[in-house]
Specification:
- This protein is of the alpha/beta class.
- About 40% of the residues lie in helices and about 15% in strands.
- It is built from ten helices and eight strands.
- An eight-stranded parallel sheet has the order 2-1-8-7-6-5-4-3.
- Strand 6, helix 6 and strand 7 form a beta-alpha-beta unit.
- Helix 1 crosses helix 2, helix 2 runs parallel beside helix 3 and helix 3 runs parallel beside helix 4.
- The longest helix is centred in the first third of the chain and has 14 residues.
- InterPro entries: Aldolase_TIM, DapA-like.
- Pfam families: DHDPS.
- Keywords: Lyase.
- This is Dihydrodipicolinate synthase family protein.
Length: about 260
């Protein structure tokens, strides 16, 4: 479940700002035939902004409608203890792995980053996928620290969203003992022979993502560039653009995002 196309899901919301189970079901009906695993509540799912209730509802609905696909629980919380709190809930809700960043803040040291992932593995109750990049946490593991983290027995994969295809290729060459997953659409074809894609594009174009990964396209660069432009995948509000496209298709009942919805804890 740590290879192939892993769909980083948007979070379907109702008119009242609650997670729409029917929207999740319709979305997964379109994604399942082409995906190898499902990943709710990460950046594409607005994971930083979800209340605990929304986070639990989205994970619950994803597991319920997964149709046999593995579900990896995105956990975007600022501290080790907060991630562990959500990890324990994820175990109870049926997730098969957790995906987490480093602890938030510019002053986090490399030793603190390593201890964070060590504790997640020892106390979280789930295999760990490292979400590598600075956008969420404001810091990142350096290359040597990341290799040490990959050697931890509970770390099964790295989602590399560093923004550097060179860094991804270097990870692949290092054979660190964990799967290497490319996390940014515009760099997929430059990232080398990765084990999988963790992409928002799989919400709107799951068949295209599967064909890209399998190498079945004769014009992959042009097709990928067109999709990135069409859904604004290099924009800060890519998740909003994807929701709007899915709403227009009738997959989602609204294109509301967390910041535009009226939500309660």
């Amino acid at each position: 479940m740590y290879q192939g196309v892993i769909a980083a899901l948007v979070t379907p919301l109702s008119e009242t700002g609650e997670v729409s189970e029917s929207g999740v079901a319709r979305l997964l009906d379109t994604v399942r035939p082409h995906a190898d695993a499902l990943l709710p509540n990460l950046s594409t799912g607005e994971g930083r902004r979800l209340s605990d209730r929304q986070w639990e509802d989205m994970l619950t609905a994803t597991v319920k409608h997964a149709g046999g696909l593995p579900v990896l629980a995105g956990i975007l919380r600022p501290t080790t203890e907060r991630v562990l709190e959500r990890a324990r809930v994820a175990v109870d809700l049926g997730a098969q792995a957790l995906v987490a960043t480093t602890p938030y803040g510019p002053g986090i040291t490399q030793d603190e980053i390593r201890r964070h992932f060590t504790e997640l593995g020892e106390r979280g109750g789930l295999p760990v996928v490292v979400y590598h990049g600075t956008e969420v946490a404001g810091n990142a593991a350096d290359f040597d620290t990341l290799l040490r983290i990959c050697a931890l027995p509970s770390v099964v994969a790295v989602k590399d969203s560093s923004g550097s295809a060179d860094f991804t290729r270097r990870l692949v060459r290092a054979r660190p003992g964990a799967r290497i997953l490319a996390g940014l659409e515009h760099l997929l074809l430059e990232s080398g022979p990765v084990d999988g894609y963790v992409v928002a594009l799989a919400n709107a174009e799951p068949a295209l993502c599967a064909d890209l990964f399998a190498g079945r396209l004769t014009d992959p660069a042009a097709r990928l560039a067109d999709a990135c432009a069409r859904y604004g995948l290099e924009r800060d509000d890519w998740y909003r653009r994807i929701k709007t496209a899915l709403h227009h298709r009738g997959v989602l009942e609204t294109d509301r995002t967390v910041e535009t919805a009226e939500v309660g804890e």
